[in-house]
Design a protein that fits this description.
Length: 199
């Protein structure tokens, strides 16, 4: 009888030990597998919001930081640039920025920005992904050219608000990314102004 009880105790001990060792092995095997699917620090940083110093930007100048692996343009428009925006509306495909996916709601206006003076765009043509040239001078691409962005790959033209001209290959306006002003001299690309959370 005593031997039978000892066998049960031994069995329980061996069963418990095997369960612990098996569970530990399962966890040790699962951790690297799960970590493989989690984004790396580099990937997280690539999607993180980017602060852009615009305090020294003169009217007519732009800076080109990178956000999520894409070029972003922050252009400080001068009065002449802003005055040209209503003049072209009959030549634009989407002058009122009705395609909602091309900008956040707070940039769905004639100047496509939070503050008319500052334009923030993703610098990639909506046709095939080339990077348009910044050509602010009027007349460079014909009499109807009042300044803007010209894609050298297939000839798409965009005005100084990133709105696409009619009759060019690009189907939609240039994309306005989510952004906010942290202060008068700092634009944070990748965060909406309402909640300050990353987009």
């Amino acid at each position: 009888m005593k031997q039978d009880g000892a066998d049960k105790s031994k069995r329980r001990f061996l069963t418990g030990a095997a369960t612990v060792v098996g569970g530990t092995g399962l966890v040790l095997t699962a951790v690297p597998f799960i970590n493989y699917w989690l984004p790396s620090a580099r990937t997280k940083a690539a999607g993180a919001p980017v602060e852009v110093d615009v305090s020294k930007l003169e009217p007519g100048q732009r800076v080109s930081p990178e956000w999520r692996g894409k070029p972003v343009w922050v252009l400080r428009r001068d009065e002449r640039m802003l005055e040209t925006l209503p003049e072209l509306e009959d030549q634009l495909r989407d002058p009122e920025s009705k395609v909602a996916s091309q900008q956040p709601p707070y940039a769905q206006n004639r100047h496509r920005s939070l503050k008319p003076e500052y334009l923030v765009l993703v610098g990639i043509c909506t046709h095939l992904g080339c990077s348009p040239l910044f050509e602010p001078e009027p007349g460079v691409y014909g009499d109807d050219w009042l300044g803007g962005f010209f894609c050298p790959c297939h000839g798409s033209k965009f005005d100084l608000a990133g709105r696409v001209y009619q009759g060019v290959p690009a189907p939609t306006n240039l994309v306005v990314p989510p952004y906010r002003f942290a202060d008068d001299g700092t634009v944070v690309v990748g965060e909406d102004p309402q909640d300050g959370g990353a987009a």
